[in-house]
Amino acid sequence: GAVVSQHPSRVICKSGTSVKIECRSLDFQATTMFWYRQFPKQSLMLMATSNEGSKATYEQGVEKDKFLINHASLTLSTLTVTSAHPEDSSFYICSARVSTGTVTANYGYTFGSGTRLTVV
Amino acid sequence: AQKITQTQPGMFVQEKEAVTLDCTYDTSDPSYGLFWYKQPSSGEMIFLIYQGSYDQQNATEGRYSLNFQKARKSANLVISASQLGDSAMYFCAMREGPGAGSYQLTFGKGTKLSVIP
């Protein structure tokens, strides 16, 4: 239980275009979704936290106009990288907060499989 | 100050041997949780083991055990009988706050474990 499906797994886009990454909770309701970015051989850095039905909270230094997060439903959260540039190339991964009241898988956090974005 | 410190960028271990990956943490919150994740080259985050701050006993999950020393603020991961498939990045992470809240995880920089045949 508590599976998060993240798509696409890999995407290559041209500089200046936008890319949308989706994370769907398949068998539970994800009231909170965390979005992380990971550069090669580095750790996961939190970009933003989104709660269903409200605006995302961005970490310091993350451009909210560039990384648009939408969490319109309890089963879908999206990250859109707008006007992508080569420096936005990275591994993006979502993590859903799983309510310990209903599902206790992995002690409350389940991750998508990640999206490797390459901007050319 | 870093909240999670992993001082070993890379580790090597012989197959079938045990290995300890170090993790120290820093928090003033009395309620917190400590996690270890494995990240293979595919990128997925695989949950390994969890230790709550109020847990009296060290957590164990199969070949994984967590050496929790609360006073020293350390939560080292011990992998017994290493296998070639254990080669991956390993991340220590912390949740500050009780388990029922929507608290983020803070990750350490990771340790790259290589298992030698």
Quick description:
The complex is a heterodimer of chains A (120) and B (117). With 120 residues, chain A is mostly beta strands. Helices cover 0% and strands 51% of the residues of chain A.
Structure in words:
The complex is a heterodimer of chains A (120) and B (117). In chain A, the strands form two sheets. In chain A, strands 2, 4, 5, 6, 9, 10 and 11 form a seven-stranded mixed sheet that branches. With 120 residues, chain A is mostly beta strands. Helices cover 0% and strands 51% of the residues of chain A. In chain A, strand 7 and strand 8 (76-81) form a beta hairpin. Chain A has strands at residues 4-7, 10-13, 19-25, 32-38, 44-51, 57-58, 67-73, 76-81, 90-97, 109-111, 115-119. With 117 residues, chain B is an all-beta fold. Chain B contains no helices and twelve strands. In chain B, strands 2, 5, 6, 10, 11 and 12 form a six-stranded mixed sheet that branches. Chain B is globular, with a radius of gyration of 14 Å. Chain B starts with a strand and ends with a strand. The chains are: A mainly beta (120), B mainly beta (117). The interface between A and B is medium-sized, with 26 and 21 residues.
Shape annotation of chain A: globular
C-alpha Rg of chain A (nearest Å): 14 Å
Strand content of chain A: over 45%
How large is the radius of gyration of chain B? Answer: 14 Å
| Largest sheet geometry of chain A | 7 strands, mixed
Average pLDDT of chain B, rounded to a whole number, is: 95
* Total number of strands of chain B: 12
Helical content of chain A stands at: under 10%
What's the N-to-C terminus distance of chain B? 38 Å
The total count of helices of chain B amounts to 0
Work out the number of β strands of chain A.
Answer: 11
Number of helices of chain A: 0
What multimeric state do the chains show? heterodimer
Largest sheet of chain B: 6 strands, mixed
Structural class of chain B: mainly beta
